[in-house]
Amino acid sequence: MKTNVDELDALRAHVGHLQGRFDLVIQASSDALWDMELGDYDISDPECPCWLSDQFRRMLGYSSQDDLPNLLSSWSARLHPDDSGRTLQAFVAHIGDYSGQTPYDVTYRLRCRDGSYRWMRALGRTQRAADGRAVRVAGAMTDITDSMVLLDLKRYAEDIAARYRDQASLLDKTTDAIVVRGLDGRVQFWNRSAERMYGWTPEEATGRLVSELIYDDHALLDDITGRILTHGEWRGEIRHRRKDGTTFPVEGHWTLVLDEAGEPKSIMVINSDITQRKAAEQKIRLLAMYDSLTGLPNRTLCMESLGRALVEARMNDGMLAVLFMDLNRFKEINDTRGHGVGDQVLVQVARRFQAVLHPGEILSRLAGDEFIVATPVDDRAAAVDLAQRLEGALLDPVAAADHTFIMRVSIGIALHPMDGTTIDDLLKRADIAMYRAKDSGVGHVFYEPEMSEGLAERMELAKDLARALNNGELQLYYQPKVDLDSGAMVGAEALLRWYDPRRGWVSPVDFIPIAEARGMMAPLGRWVLREACRQMKAWQGAGLHFSGRLAINLAAQELDDGSLASSIVDIVQAADLTPSSFELELTESGLMGDIERAIVVMAALKTAGFSLSIDDFGTGYSSLAYLKRLPVDKLKIDISFVRDMLNDRHDRTIVTTILGMAHNMGLSAIAEGVEQAEQAEALRALGCDEAQGYYYGKPQPASVFARTWLTAQPRG
C-alpha cells in the first residue's frame, strides 16, 4: 500500500513539475495561446468556453479574466467587421473537416480595449477522435501589426516612386514645354518637349540661366518675374528664341512654387508654341475684316476705323466727315446681267474710288453697293472736294464682261460734331442724306436736321410693334434644318413674322432694327420662346414627332439681362419641356459686344442642357482665343458666303476655312441660305454637317410645317 502512495506522490510531483514548466513557457511566450475542449459545445454559442492565455489579454489591453473572460465570444466579438465573416468561416471549416486536411492559418484584426485594432496571425491544430470528429482545438496568435505597417509603408513608397515615374513620363510626352527654374534664374528641370521646342537638350539646359537660352527681352523677363513673386501666377503671350536663333510666339503659364515653410523656392513655366494659332488668327482676321470681293475693309473694320478716327477728332477738337455712298441703278446690272457681272463692276468701282483718295481718307465697303469714306476735314469745303473726287472717279464708263456701264454715285455727308457725336449717329444721318441725294438726283448732299422727319414713321412702327406683341398678333414660322448626308430633318429654326392689318406683312429687316433701337428685343425674345414651347407641346399632344432641336435666336440685348439663363430655363420648364429640345443661336457680332458676359451666360445655358450655336459666323471678328472659351456646339456659316461660294473662290475659301476650324475644335457646322442642289453637294463634299435654306424648305406656318416635316409619334 505504501508503494502505491509513494508512486502517487511521485506522479503528482512530476505533474506539478510539468505544470510549472508549461506555465513558465506560457509566460515567456510573446504569442497568445488558446485552447478549447469541444465536447458537446456549440461553437456558435457566445457562452462556449475557451481558455485564453494572459498574453491574449495583454495584447488587447485587458488585465484579468474579469475584464475578458475565457469565452469564445471574447475573441469572436472583437473581430474587425471586414474580417469577421471569412475568419469564422475558416475556423468552422477547419474544425468541420473530418479528414483533417483543412489548415487553420488566418490573418485578421482584433479590437483592443481602447477601440484600436491590431493585426493577428492565428495558427490552430485540432485533436480528433477515431471517426475524425473534432475533440479539442488549440493554437496561438501572433501580433503582426508592425509587420503589416512596414508592408503598407513599403507598398506606399513603391506607389510614390511609380507615380513619380509615370508623372515624369507624362511630362516628357506632353506637347507643352515644361521648365522649372530656381529663383536665381537657372534651369532645374527641362522636359523633352522643351528640347523639341527650343533645340536645347535637358543636359545642355540644366544649370544654365534661362535668360541666356530663350529670352531676348531681359527687361520683360525681369518684369514678369517680379509680378509672379508678388502675385504667384502669370499668364500671357511672349516671344522666345530657339537654339538656332529664330524666334516664335508662345503662350506661357508661370506658377510660383513654395517650400514647406511657404517661402518661394522656384518657378514652374508651361509654354505652348502658338505659331500656328497666331497664323490661323491672322488668316481669319484677314478674311473677317476685309471684303473678299474688293479687298477693302469690311463693315467690322470700318467700325473700328471710324471709332479711332472719332476719338482723334474729339481729342483734337476737330471735324470728321463721314460720306455714305450708294451706286445708282446698280440693282439693274445684277438683275439683267447677273451677279457675276455686278461683282466685276463693284471691283472696278472700288479701284477707281481708291485711286482718287488722299492719305488719311479711309474707304470701306459696307455691304452690296454701299461704300463709306471717313476722313478728318478742316471745313465743309474739304468734304465737298472729297465728294467731287469720288463722283469724278465714275465719269468714264465702267467695263465688265464685254459690257460698259455708265455708273453714278449718290453721296450723303454727315459731319462731326455738328451732325452727331457717335458713330451710329453719323452713319444714320449720312445714310439719310444719301437717300435725299438719290431722290433729288444730285451727286452729294449734306445732312440737315429736317431730313429726319421719317423718324416719326419709325416711331409709329415701333408703337404698332409693341401693340402687336402685347395683343398676340405676332407669329412664328418654322424652317427645317437637314443632315447633308441623309437629307433627313435634324431640327428647325423658329422665325418671327408680323402681319400688320394696315401695312400687311412687315419684313423683319424693317422691324427688328426698330426693336433693337427701342430696347424691345428682350420681351420679343421671351415671347418667341414661350410661343415655341407652346407649339412644341401642341405637336406632342397631336402625336407628332419633332426630330432634333428647335432653334431659337437670342439677341445681343438679351445678354445684358443677368437673369437670362434662369428665365429661359423657367419658361421651358413651365411648358413641361426640357432644354434638350432647344438650340439657342447667338450672332457672332452680338457675342463680341461683351464677350466676358457672353461667356458667363452661355456657360449657364450650356450647363442647363441647351445646345448653343453662333449664327452668321464669319461676318464679324471673333478671336480664336475667345472662340475656344465659348461653350458652343455649332457654327452657322453666314448666307453671304454660301450664296456665291460656287462662283467666288474667296467665299469658297472662307467656307472651307470655317468648316476646318469648326471640326478641329470639335464643333459641327451648318450652312444657311442653301438654295441650289449644287451648293448642297459642294457643302457636303467639304464636310459640312447640316444645311438650311429654300432648297430644302421655306419658313412655313406651324400647320404647314407639321404636314410637311413631322411624323406620327412612335407608340410606346
Can you walk me through this structure?
The longest helix is centred in the N-terminal third of the chain and has 29 residues. It is built from 26 helices and 29 strands. The mean pLDDT is 86. 45% of the residues lie in helices and 25% in strands. The chain is elongated. Helix 12 runs antiparallel to helix 13 and helix 19 runs parallel beside helix 21. With 716 residues, it is α+β, with helices and mostly antiparallel strands.
Short description:
The protein is an alpha+beta fold and 716 residues long. Helix 12 (330-337) runs antiparallel to helix 13 and helix 19 packs parallel to helix 21.
Structural class: alpha+beta
Q: Indicate the overall shape.
A: elongated
Fraction in helix: 40-55%
Q: Strand content of the residues, in percent? A: 25-35%
Task: Describe the secondary-structure layout.
Elements: H1 2-28, E1 32-37, E2 51-52, H2 54-60, H3 72-76, H4 81-96, E3 104-111, E4 117-128, E5 134-143, H5 145-173, E6 177-182, E7 187-190, H6 192-198, H7 202-205, H8 210-214, H9 218-231, E8 233-241, E9 247-258, E10 264-273, H10 275-289, H11 299-315, E11 319-327, H12 330-337, H13 339-356, E12 362-367, E13 370-377, H14 380-392, E14 398-400, E15 403-405, E16 409-416, H15 423-440, E17 444-446, H16 455-470, E18 474-483, E19 489-500, E20 504-506, H17 508-517, H18 521-541, E21 544-545, E22 549-554, H19 564-574, E23 582-587, H20 588-592, H21 595-608, E24 611-617, H22 624-627, E25 634-637, H23 639-643, H24 649-664, E26 668-672, H25 677-686, E27 690-692, E28 700-701, H26 702-709, E29 711-712
Parallel strand pairs: 16-17, 19-22, 22-23, 23-24, 24-25, 25-26, 26-27
Antiparallel strand pairs: 1-2, 1-5, 3-4, 4-5, 6-7, 6-10, 8-9, 9-10, 11-13, 11-16, 12-13, 14-15, 18-19, 18-27, 18-28, 19-20, 21-29
